[in-house]
Task: inverse folding
C-alpha cells in the first residue's frame, strides 16, 4: 500500500542530501519525493511516497524525525487529502491527428501547451491514476518524452497540517504508540 | 564586545562547554585554530594517527560521561578520523570533531587537501556542519555540543574553512536557549498512561526478565534500575555495552546475553513471559534468529530513539523517552514480588555454567586467556577501567572480568573496531587520571594502532597494557574452525616482540607464558609508577564458548566440549 508522508524541513544547503542519504543508507524504497517552497521563507515542504509493502512507513517517519533539520513530519495516508501530480507529455502527431489528441486532452481536463510540426506537448494535472490513464491512451500514438513532478499532498478542509498533537510526538497516533502496521514486514 | 577571529571563537566556545582536553593533530587548514589554542586553558594531546584522536575522544566520553573532542586538519586528517566517528555513532557516544577545511573561495575546486568532509561523514555522524560564515560559528558550536549530548547521544562534526578561522567578528557568547528544529518531534518522557499499562503488565508477569543495555549508562539510570529490579526481584541480563549498568556480582545479575552470553541467560530470554528491554536495541548479536526470538514473551521497550521501536523485534508497549525518568515513574507503580518459581528454574540452570567451569582447569598445555583475564580481575578486585580491542579477548573480558561499576568497560560494541583499545584507554585515562586503566588487546588489533604508545609516553600516562598473543586473528580463526572447515585463510599473524617495541618507547615490557607467573607480573606492573606492557603467550587455538552461530536460534548454543580438557 502507498503511504504519503509530508515533511517540513529547513531550507538550508544540504538538507535534501541528508534526506536522500538517509533513504539510501536505510535501504528505504521511495516511490517519489518532491520538494518545494512553502508560504514561509526558510521552510521547504517535502511530499514522500513510499510503498509500505516493502518499506515500513513508521520507521521512515521515525528516522526522518531524527534529522535535526526536520521541523515536522506527518503520515497523511489515512487522512482526507488532496494529492496532485503533474505531467508534461510530448506526443508524436501529424497535423491530421491533432484533433484527436485535443479531444483526449479535453476529457482529462488537460491542455495542449505547445504545438510543433509533428508533435504536441500535453500538460495534465491530477492524481496519479488519472495521469496514468491519459498516458496509457497516448502511448499508442507515440510518446516522445515525458516528465512527471511526483505527488504533492495537502489535507482537506480548513484543518491545516496538524501542528504538534501536544504530546511532542510526530505520529498522528497519540502517545507514541506506533501505528498497527508498524511491524517491519520482513521480521 | 571584543573583536575575535573564528579560531579564537572556537576556543571561547569550547572552554564554555567545559572542554579542557582535545585530542588532535595539526595541519595546514587547521593552523589558525592551533595558533589560537595557545591562549586558552586547553590541554592538547598530540596523537600519532587521527584515528587515535577520534577513539581517544570516544574513550574520554565513555569514561567520563562528558563530550569528547577531537581535531584534525582537512582532507587526510579528517578522513583518518572516520573510523572513530563511525565507532562512536554505532555506540551513541557524544563526541565533537573539529576539522579544518580549505578556504570557502576554493571549496569545490579540488584544492590541496580538500575533501568533502561533511559529505563523507554524513552517515557516520549524528549531525554535521560546514561553517560558511564566521558569524554562524558561536551558534553552530553551541548547537554541536547540544546535539552530541541530547536525546540519543552521538558524534557531531564541525568543518571550519581556513578563512572562517581567520575572519573576525564582534564576539558575544550567545545565551538564548537552544531549540533544535526537530526537537518537538522527539519524546522526552513516556506518557503516564503507557507507564501505567506497563506496570500492570509487569505485575502480572510470572517470568519477567530485564535486558539492560547501554541506555542505562547513557541515561544515568543505574540507581533506578537497581531499585526497580530489587523491588520486583526481576533477573537482569546485560548486553555487552550494558555491562556496568548493573553490578555484575549482584545476586540478580545473570550476566551477558547473546552470541557469547551465558547459556542460562539466553535460555532465560527464550523462556521469559515478559522482556523489559531497557536502552537496548535488539542487535543481531543479541537476538540470533529473530523468528524464534523469545517466542512467548510480551515485550516492553524503554527507548529514547523512536526509530528503534519495532525495528528488529515487535514490542507490546513502547516507552519512548528517557529511561531514568520512565523508571522513576514506573517503580512506585509496580508491586513487590519474589518470583520464587522463576528463580528456582534459573538457579538450576546457573549451576551448569560452562563459562565458570573453565576456571577450574589446570591447562598444563599452555596459558589460557580466560585465566589471565580472571587473574587480572582478581588482582584489581574488579575496580579497574578496562579498554578492550575486538576479538576473542574482548568476549573473554566480558565473560571473566566482572564489572560492578558503571563506565569501567570501554569497548567498541556496534562497529567492532579493531585498534580501538589503546587510543580509547588514553582517552579514558585523561578523563579519569586517578583510575587504574588497563588495555586488553589481541596481537592483531594492537598492531593496528600501536603507534599511540608514543602518545602514552609523551603524555606521561600510567596505562597498563595486556596483549593476549595467540598468533592468530583469533576470532576470525574461530569462525574458520567452526564454519569454514578449519581453513585458516589469512588468520595466522606474525607479530614483533611486543616487549621490545615497548622498550623502544621507553616502556618496560614483559613476556609471560605460564599461569604461575601471571599474578606476580600483574602485581609488579600495577605497583610500578609508569606504563608497562605485558605480552601473554596464550593457547593458540582456544575458542570463545558458548556461542550462538550468527543467525541461529538463541537456545542453540555451541558449548565447549568437556573433552577438550586434558587430564
Ligand atoms: C578494523 C577491523 N578489521 C577487521 C575486523 C574483523 N575481525 C574481527 S575480530 C578479528 C581478529 C582479531 O584478532 P586479534 O586482535 O589477534 O584478537 P583475538 O581474536 O585473537 O583475541 C578480526 C580480523 C574488525 N573487527 N575490525
Ligand atoms: Mg590474536
Result:
Amino acid at each position: 500500500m502507498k503511504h504519503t508522508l509530508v515533511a517540513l524541513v529547513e531550507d538550508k544547503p544540504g538538507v535534501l542530501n541528508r534526506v536522500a542519504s538517509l533513504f539510501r543508507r536505510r535501504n528505504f524504497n521511495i516511490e517519489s519525493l518532491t520538494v518545494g517552497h512553502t508560504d514561509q521563507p526558510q521552510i521547504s515542504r517535502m511530499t514522500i511516497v513510499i510503498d509500505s509493502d516493502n518499506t515500513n512507513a513508521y520507521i521512515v517517519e521515525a528516522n526522518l524525525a531524527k534529522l535535526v533539520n526536520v521541523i515536522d513530519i506527518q503520515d497523511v495516508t489515512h487522512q482526507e487529502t488532496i494529492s496532485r501530480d503533474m505531467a508534461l507529455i510530448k506526443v508524436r502527431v501529424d497535423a491530421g491527428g491533432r484533433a484527436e489528441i485535443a479531444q483526449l486532452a479535453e476529457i482529462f481536463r488537460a491542455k495542449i501547451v505547445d504545438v510543433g510540426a509533428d508533435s504536441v506537448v500535453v500538460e495534465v494535472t491530477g492524481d496519479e491514476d488519472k495521469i496514468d490513464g491519459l498516458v496509457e491512451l497516448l502511448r499508442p500514438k507515440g510518446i516522445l518524452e515525458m516528465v512527471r513532478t511526483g505527488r504533492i499532498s495537502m489535507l482537506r478542509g480548513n484543518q491545516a497540517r496538524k501542528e504538534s498533537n501536544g504530546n511532542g510526538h510526530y505520529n498522528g497516533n497519540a502517545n507514541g504508540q506506533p501505528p498497527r502496521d508498524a511491524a517491519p514486514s520482513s521480521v | 564586545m571584543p573583536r575575535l577571529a573564528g579560531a579564537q571563537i572556537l576556543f571561547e566556545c569550547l572552554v564554555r562547554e567545559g572542554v579542557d582536553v582535545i585530542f588532535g593533530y595539526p595541519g595546514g587548514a587547521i593552523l589558525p585554530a592551533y595558533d589560537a589554542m595557545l591562549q586558552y586553558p586547553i590541554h592538547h594531546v598530540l596523537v600519532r594517527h587521527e584515528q587515535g584522536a577520534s577513539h581517544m575522544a570516544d574513550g574520554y566520553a565513555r569514561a567520563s560521561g562528558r563530550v569528547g573532542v577531537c581535531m584534525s586538519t582537512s582532507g587526510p586528517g579528517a578522513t583518518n578520523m572516520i573510523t572513530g566517528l563511525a565507532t562512536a555513532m554505532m555506540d551513541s557516544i557524544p563526541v565533537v570533531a573539529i576539522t579544518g577545511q580549505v578556504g570557502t573561495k576554493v571549496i569545490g575546486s579540488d584544492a590541496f587537501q580538500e575533501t568533502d568532509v561533511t559529505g563523507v561523514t554524513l552517515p557516520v555522524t549524528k549531525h554535521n556542519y560546514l561553517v560558511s560564515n564566521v558569524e554562524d560559528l558561536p551558534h553552530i558550536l553551541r548547537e554541536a555540543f547540544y546535539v552530541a549530548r541530547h536525546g540519543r547521544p552521538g558524534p557531531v562534526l564541525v568543518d571550519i574553512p581556513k578563512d572562517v578561522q581567520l575572519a573576525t567578528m564582534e564576539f558575544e557568547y550567545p545565551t538564548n536557549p537552544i531549540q533544535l528544529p526537530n526537537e518537538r518531534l522527539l519524546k522526552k518522557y513516556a506518557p503516564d498512561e503507557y507507564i501505567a499499562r506497563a506496570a500492570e503488565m509487569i505485575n502480572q508477569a510470572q517470568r519477567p526478565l530485564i535486558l539492560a543495555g547501554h541506555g542505562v549508562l547513557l541515561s544515568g539510570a543505574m540507581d533506578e534500575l537497581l531499585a526497580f529490579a530489587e523491588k520486583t526481584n526481576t533477573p537482569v541480563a546485560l548486553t555487552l555495552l550494558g555491562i556496568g549498568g548493573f553490578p555484575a556480582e549482584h545476586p540478580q545479575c545473570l550476566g551477558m546475553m547473546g552470541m557469547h552470553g551465558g547459556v542460562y541467560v539466553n535460555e532465560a530470554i527464550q523462556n521469559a513471559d515478559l522482556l523489559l528491554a531497557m536502552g537496548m536495541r535488539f542487535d543481531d548479536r543479541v537476538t540470533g534468529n529473530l523468528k524464534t526470538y523469545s517466542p512467548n514473551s510480551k515485550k516492553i521497550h524503554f527507548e529514547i530513539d523512536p526509530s528503534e521501536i519495532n525495528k528488529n523485534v515487535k514490542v507490546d508497549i513502547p516507552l519512548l523517552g528517557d529511561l531514568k525518568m520512565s523508571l522513576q515513574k514506573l517503580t512506585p507503580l509496580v508491586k513487590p514480588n519474589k518470583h520464587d518459581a522463576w528463580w528456582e528454574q534459573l538457579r538450576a540452570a546457573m549451576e551448569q555454567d560452562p563459562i565458570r567451569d573453565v576456571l577450574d582447569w589446570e591447562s598444563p598445555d599452555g596459558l589460557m586467556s580466560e585465566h589471565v583475564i580472571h587473574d587480572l580481575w582478581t588482582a584489581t578486585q574488579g575496580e579497574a577501567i578496562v579498554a578492550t580491542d575486538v576479538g576473542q579477548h574482548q568476549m573473554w573480558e566480558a565473560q571473566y572480568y566482572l564489572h560492578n561499576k558503571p563506565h569501567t568497560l570501554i569497548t567498541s560494541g556496534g562497529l567492532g573496531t579493531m585498534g580501538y583499545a589503546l587510543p580509547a584507554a588514553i582517552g579514558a585515562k585523561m578523563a579519569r587520571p586517578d583510575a587504574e586503566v588497563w588495555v586488553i588487546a589481541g596481537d592483531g588489533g594492537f598492531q593496528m594502532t600501536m603507534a599511540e604508545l608514543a602518545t602514552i609516553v609523551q603524555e606521561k600516562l600510567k596505562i597498563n597494557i595486556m596483549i593476549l598473543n595467540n598468533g592468530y586473528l583469533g576470532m576470525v580463526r574461530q569462525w574458520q574452525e567452526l564454519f569454514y572447515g578449519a581453513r585458516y585463510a589469512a588468520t595466522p599473524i606474525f607479530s614483533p616482540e611486543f616487549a621490545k617495541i615497548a622498550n623502544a618507547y621507553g616502556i618496560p615490557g614483559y613476556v609471560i607464558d605460564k599461569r604461575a607467573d601471571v599474578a606476580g607480573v600483574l602485581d609488579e606492573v600495577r605497583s610500578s609508577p609508569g606504563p608497562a606492557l605485558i605480552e601473554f603467550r596464550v593457547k593458540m587455538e582456544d575458542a570463545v564458548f558458548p556461542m550462538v552461530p550468527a543467525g541461529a536460534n538463541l537456545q542453540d548454543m555451541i558449548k565447549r566440549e568437556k573433552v577438550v580438557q586434558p587430564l
About this structure: The pocket of magnesium ion (ligand 2) is lined by residues B 442-444, 470, 472-474 (CB under 6 Å).
